[in-house]
UniProtKB/TrEMBL annotation:
Protein name: NCS1 family nucleobase:cation symporter-1
Transmembrane segments: 71-102, 140-162, 174-196, 208-226, 246-266, 286-308, 328-349, 370-388, 394-419, 448-468, 474-491
Primary residence: membrane
GO cellular component, one term: plasma membrane
Subcellular location: Membrane
CDD domains hit by this protein: SLC-NCS1sbd_u1
Record-stated family: Belongs to the purine-cytosine permease (2.A.39) family.
Length: 511
């Protein structure tokens, strides 16, 4: 071998060593921290270079608020006997509460830079946090599969409308879906897996793209329906409630609106851990929640009021209106926008949480990308269309898990804001030292569990016992309130808490 070849080989060897060292550095666990608790995706984010602006947070809500499920909920308020103004009032009550709750939750992520499973370690302990993360992740992974299935139904209808020859493929059943149904589901499943595999930064970019598309589509749909109804709408269905019964439904509607976001108020820190400042959270939440929800409510009232004026019927979802568009091109464009919306909602609401939960469960084996793939596979193998078509599963299993979200929120928020007053020792969240701040009793805080269990029991009873049905709209508040009060009185409020930032063990936020 000549000298030139020797030099080339040495250069390649040097580059290989450099690349290997870089990989090791990226995956290395800082001294004193546990590899069972720390990896690059669970580590706090550096303050410098955080990329989530007020616009990024606004587009989260621009997508999620306008989800088809939320429209179905708001439309259902009309069926309960509320008129247009009462529906707007119910959404306004919910929006005001959500703005406060999500802002407080968001501040926690911005200060510490950690995702929800790590945030849960503060109150529940370094190992007890698995309880909170798995409950949140379990709810999300099931809904990820269900929402992907619902989006595949829209895609299937769109494909048949554009390519009628595909209709024979929509007949028959393979494990509950037609051949075309499987193709549509798998195609959307792959799209979401690809997006998430590029990390939170790609999700931010997708949400930023999808937000304006959704707002423009829904506004255009409302304007079109308004014109179809002769530029006037029906403000009620002729069976409008009044008095105390009306106000109970208005407040109940607002409470249910908060319950719908019971998942998000828990793990909002998954997103705000990359927020540039508290101001960006407040500004993004302000435009994305009260203002955007007012727009959402206005669009809902126009769609329902216009349709009711035209034929006396209440629509079930905006997709019903899209399906009735006579022009194939416009129908295709609107359906595509609904698909963009559903994917955006699924990514933020139902994909991120289980991904972080699995990463937290197996930090030495799973990074964000691998955990996302595992979450997606679980969402596929559970055959979610069968879950969706089984009311018992939706009501008792997913409903039961959902009833636990309020108590979890109550414990975490009471601990952070009322007991610790925002003081957190971030490096200690990754330590298994017996005298560590968050080790408690073998890594579990018994006081948090003691506060959680009775609150969860009350929430489940209110949610499932028929005689308590009038209170069922307020289940989340009962659970969160009881858990918060329990924890506040059980906790040692005289203890001195350290406030140590995590910059020394932090990683870049774009990963």
């Amino acid at each position: 071998m000549n000298s030139t070849q020797d030099t080339a080989v040495q250069t390649l060897d040097t580059e290989d060593v450099a690349h290997t060292e870089a990989r090791h550095a990226a995956s290395a666990v800082p001294t004193g921290l546990s590899p069972r608790l720390y990896n690059r995706d669970l580590a706090p984010t550096r303050r410098e270079g955080r990329s989530w602006t007020a616009y990024s947070i606004f587009t989260l809500w621009a997508n999620d608020v306008h989800s088809l499920g939320n429209y179905a909920f708001a439309i259902g308020l009309f069926a309960l006997g509320l008129g247009g103004w009462q529906v707007l009032a119910a959404l306004g009550v919910g929006a005001a509460l959500l703005f406060a709750l999500l802002t407080l939750s968001g501040f926690m992520g911005q200060k510490t830079g950690v995702p929800f499973p790590v945030m849960s370690r503060i109150a529940f302990g370094i190992h007890g946090a698995q309880i909170a993360a798995l409950i949140r992740g379990g709810v999300a992974v099931a809904w990820f599969g269900i929402q992907t299935y619902l989006a595949s139904v829209v895609l299937r209808v769109l494909l048949i409308a554009v390519f009628p020859d595909l209709k024979p493929l929509d007949e028959g059943s393979i494990l509950g879906l037609s051949a075309l149904g499987w193709m549509a589901f798998v195609a959307l499943w792959i799209v979401q897996v690809v997006i998430v595999s590029y990390g939170m930064e790609m999700i931010r970019k997708y949400e930023a793209f999808a937000g304006p598309v959704i707002l423009a589509t829904m506004a255009a749909l409302a304007i079109w329906m308004f014109s179809q109804a002769g530029f006037s709408i029906a403000w009620n269905t002729g069976h409008e409630l009044s008095g105390g019964d009306m106000w109970l439904k208005v407040l109940g509607g607002g409470a249910l609106w908060v319950s719908i976001y019971g998942t998000f108020v828990l793990n909002f820190c998954d997103f705000t851990r990359s927020a540039r400042s508290k101001k960006s959270i407040v500004k993004g939440n302000f435009w994305g929640i009260p203002i955007n929800m007012l727009l959402f409510g206005t669009i809902t009232v126009v769609l329902v009021g216009a349709q009711f004026k035209i034929n006396g019927h209440i629509i079930g979802s905006p997709s019903d209106i899209v399906a009735s568009i006579p022009n194939t091109f416009l129908l295709s464009a609107a359906s595509t926008a609904l698909l963009v919306l559903t994917v955006a909602v699924n990514l933020m609401a139902n994909f991120v949480a289980p991904t972080y939960a699995l990463t937290n469960l197996f930090p030495r084996r799973l990074n964000f990308r691998r955990a996302a793939l595992v979450s997606a596979v679980i969402g596929l193998v559970i055959l979610p269309w069968n879950l969706y078509n089984n009311p018992a599963v939706i009501e008792y299993f997913l409903g039961g898990l959902g009833a636990l979200l309020g108590p979890l929120f109550g414990v975490i928020m009471a601990d952070y804001w009322l007991v610790r007053r925002g003081r957190v020792n971030v490096p200690a969240l990754y330590s298994e030292a017996r005298d560590g701040t968050y080790h408690y009793a073998r890594g579990i805080n018994p006081k948090a569990i003691a506060a959680l269990i009775p609150a969860a029991a009350v929430a489940l009873v209110i949610g499932f016992v028929p005689v308590l049905a009038p209170l069922s709209s307020f289940t989340w508040f009962f659970g969160a309130g009881i858990a918060a009060v329990n924890f506040y009185f059980l906790a040692d409020r005289k203890c001195t808490f350290e406030d140590v930032e995590g910059e020394a063990i932090a990683v870049p936020s774009v990963h």
